[in-house]
Amino acid sequence: MRVPLSWLREYVDLPATETGRDVQAKLISAGLEVETVEQLGADLKGPLVVGQVRSIEELEGFKKHIRFCLVDVGTANGTGELQEIVCGARNFAVGDKVVVVLPGAVLPGNFAIAARQTYGKTSHGMICSGDELGMGDDGSGGIIVLPPEVEVATDAIELLQLVDEVLDIAVTPDRGYALSMRGVAREAAIAYGLPLLDPALLDVPAPNAFGYPVRVSDPMGCDRFTARTVTGLDPETLSPIWLRRRLQKAGMRPISLAVDITNYVMLELGQPLHAYDRTRVQGAIGVRRAEQGEKLTTLDGVTRTLDAEDLVITDDRGPIGLAGVMGGANTEIDDTEGTTTEVVIEAAHFDALSIARTARRHKLASEASKRFERGVDPQAASAAAQRTVDLLVLLAGGTADAGVTEVIAPSAPHSITIPANHPDKVAGVDYGRETVVRRLQQVGCDVYGQDELIVTVPSWRPDLTDPNDLAEEVIRLEGYENLPSTLPKPPAGLGLTGRQRLHRRIGRVLAGAGYVEALNYPFIGEHVFDQLGLAADDPKRKVVKLVNPLSDEEPALRTTLLPGLLHALRRNDGRGSHDLALFETGLVFQPQDELRVAGRLPVDRRPTDEEIASLTAALPVQPRHAAVVLAGAREQAGWWGKGRPADWADAIEAARSLAREAGTELLVRAGQYGPWHPGRCAELAVVVDGQEKVIGHAGELHPGVLKTLGLPARTCAMELDLDALEQASAGLPKGPKISTFPVATQDVALVVDKTVPHVDVEAALREGAGELLESIRLFDVYENGEQLGEGKKSLAYALRFRADDRTLTVDEASAARDVAVALAGERTGAVLRG
């Protein structure tokens, strides 16, 4: 919401010395987010005056149309002679009043004006457009043509209100009242302790039976509808300068007088309005839900297919507008032909949720929908209609019809019971009853009672629904900066849980291995499962969908971390970073077998354990996963030697490093799953309670997946379940015992069938070697040798033996090796090579 300071002063008698920066500080202290204060005309310097075009000479022989004009600026030029000005614009004629900037002036952007030779003539100044004066778009697209009654030599800076300060306020969803001058003025009045000149305090005639007929079929969607009629409008009348300038400063483009007035009143009172050309409305105006598939062409020229939940305005022909969003093209005010002389003014109050969903469904955000979905004061509708009628009569020469239509659904004001000391308890500050009552009354509440207050909230504050909302109003008006800063004192013995410590260690391990953490949004579209090549019955396809997603293209919560990471990898690769290693740890979401509805927790007391358990039971299962993706070089080439590209082994090693950090043994074997290459995919498993459990996969991604997602060739990935890894963990890893005795190394090469996994052979060797075995490492794999035989491979291991209390003999080490080989032969059919 853009708030011109000059306009704000009409409703609050601010001290003359107060600048926009001062008002900004006050409003920020009151809780409004005033982002900037724009200084309009700060670098503008006159003389800038009104002139009248006396003659125009067309200059020939140039590539574009050039005109040499003689302009009467009175005595503003010091001589009283006609001013010679060269101009290329063509939207003005002899006799028109225009804005002239004379030599010596400075326009916005530090553009100094001086007499200069151009097109064979000397131009002594400029005839100005709105853009050149920093006024913004006025809809004309050319030179400013002023009304004929403006006197020559009038100061145009003052006439056009070019010097002002504009506060730009980012209005949060709970403060819809601040989307109006009335709402901001109320906050300013409270902040300065000054009275408010409420523009909604108007004398409004009572409804009668002579007004334009209105039928509301859905009182839940529209609980108030006011209709007024104005006839005898002069269609040629233009919006006055002050009205156009206020709209421009507020960020709106002037269109036509009737439309400008409705926009002006909306900005002033916060009540969206709509003006219908009465001659184009057939029959009574109605409000109902649309029929599925109905068509409506809105003012933007788009024909829209309506949904059964859309609230529409109708006449005898059908829909003529999307209620609270945008009017229809078939009843719009004619601002091109200038034939509209009778208008029907609509000032209604619509259900906020319905308007928000309609605007989102049709991707049609408007100034009206932005206000309705945040909450509009229903009591302001009749005043807004009256204000619109008054301006149409005053500015367009119209006549207000005696008929007044008001359709109102019965409703009672909302009251809240709150202990007088409740804000004190919330803030930890002793405000006292008197301060609480005073602040709530400043907001507009009616307050009764002593120790127990009964508070009736004002109609313009639909966000005040419970005691804590009222406490927040007291606290913000007393000043958040006045709240004491008290650090919490946690009891001794509490700290990070084992789960939290494991997650932090895992992040450090991956970062230390050269991976960069990439945090992604937890939202996905179900099409990603097809891109990843997951089977139709894959459990990851069962997703939790959001009722109100941020994006219609990503309405579900993720069941895997890979889509987000692969998207980040593709984006970075497309921007020139080709050697990438990214990781993420985060929650994935799996739906419960039984859908449960979460209850609403109380805010006036701590929830019971049963209430918290019930809420938790309604949530989806949320295990924490870890994932990595790699592409490009894993080791860079340089003077030190050749580099090495990332491959499937790096992805598996990332999983192994996480298992080591968790203090558990990771089982790695050949696997096949979804996005991974069927011949380069490892299945990751752990032993939990004596049972093997698959917790993830690692390896090189499938070429088809890479092509579909636009990823680099040979991209690798790993993802595993950290919670399952923790369950298999023996707790914090223990530091190794350091022996001072020498190591005994024994190498063995075993011949096994190609189908035998290395992990099975290693497990048998490790068990057979016993306690003396310090480490085992696979250092060579040999296949396809004629001496091995068809379908065989050779696995070479380095076994390190060491004792804590003595130096091992050769016989002891050899004996342990032989037992290990024998057990491997028994379990896997391994034969000692050579």
Mind explaining what this structure looks like?
Helices cover 26% and strands 27% of the residues. It contains 21 helices and 42 strands.
Highlighted features:
single chain; 834 residues; alpha+beta; six-stranded antiparallel β-sheet; 21 helices; 42 strands; 26% helix
**SS field, number of helical segments:** 21
pLDDT averaged residue by residue: 90
Tell me the fraction of residues in β-strands, as a range: 25-35%
Overall, the morphology is elongated
Span between N and C termini?
85 Å
Spans with pLDDT under 50 lasting ≥5 residues? Answer: none
Largest sheet: 7 strands, mixed
Radius of gyration: 38 Å
Helix content: 25-40%
Structural class: alpha+beta
For the secondary structure, the number of strands is 42
* Spatial order of the strands forming the largest sheet: 28-31-32-38-37-36-35
Describe what is shown at a glance.
With 834 residues, this protein is of the alpha+beta class. The protein is built from 21 helices and 42 strands.
